Amino acid sequence: MNNKYALAIHGGAGTILKSKMSPEQEVTYKKVLEESLIQGQKILNSGGSSLDAVEESVKVLEDSHLFNAGKGAVFTADGKHEMEASIMCGKSLEAGAVAGITTLKNPVTLSRKILADKNYVFLSGHGAEEYGALHNLEMVTNDYFYSDMRYEQWQALKGSDKTALDHTDDRKFGTVGAVALDVHGNIAAATSTGGLTNKKYGRIGDSSVIGSGVYANNDTCAISCTGYGEFFLRGVVAYDISCLMEYANLSLQDAAEKVIMEKQTKLGGEGGIVGVDANGNMALVFNSEGMYRGMVNESTPPKAFIFRD
């Protein structure tokens, strides 16, 4: 055991323009991002596990109406909220994932319960919620996830065949996620989202899919993604970054830049990742205007960023 740890988080990427954000809004967003970092850092600083840290950091973001995950989830075409989440352990390669969640307060916590169950990796819909209830996780009514901002975004699209990203006037993805290295040398990753506004047919993005929206392996890296899910699914983004490190001996930063800046851009995918490797190197890479993000380690205090500067 050593004293080295690292934590990186994101609250979504996309066309986040400084001209469209007031100083007060910027402070509000950064405050929640920093609180997410602080809660995760408390766990890491006291010798806790990277799994506990990423779960706790993501829960803070799920509990905020500002991000498209948990409380701030967007509306589906039928006026409800459907969430998905995943978590993965780099030491054991154990993983847990959920999709189609409508009445469970923290989807990432349900994912963590599934990770600990040797019988399952991925549960969906009513069965996933039944599993959560059996394990005494906090249940809520679907209207817990309501917010005026999301409702207005849905009203602009309601009745059409269009879907939208987090904001109707901006291309922004509010998916949240975290990656961490603990003092025991283990890494982990978690991702959570509410999907696309006005989505239909039980659409599922990359956030709950192991290898696409999340991946962790102590031999390479832990990755959490945010972006246009269909492109990240097709690119198997999180695992692709790990593969480039394992088979091509690229660094975390170089592998992430190749996948996000070259391969995803060529495919048409917009978004980004946060990543950490077993040496504590962090990468926060995005091909969009901005990404809500933050980082902390044993020698640097929590710091949140939004724009490219």
TrEMBL record:
It comes from the Bacteria. Coiled coil: none annotated. CDD domains: Asparaginase_2. The active site is at T175. The record marks G174, T175 as: Cleavage. Substrate binds at R203, I204, G205, D206, T226, G227, Y228, G229. One of its GO terms (biological process) is proteolysis. This is Isoaspartyl peptidase. It comes from Fulvivirga lutea.
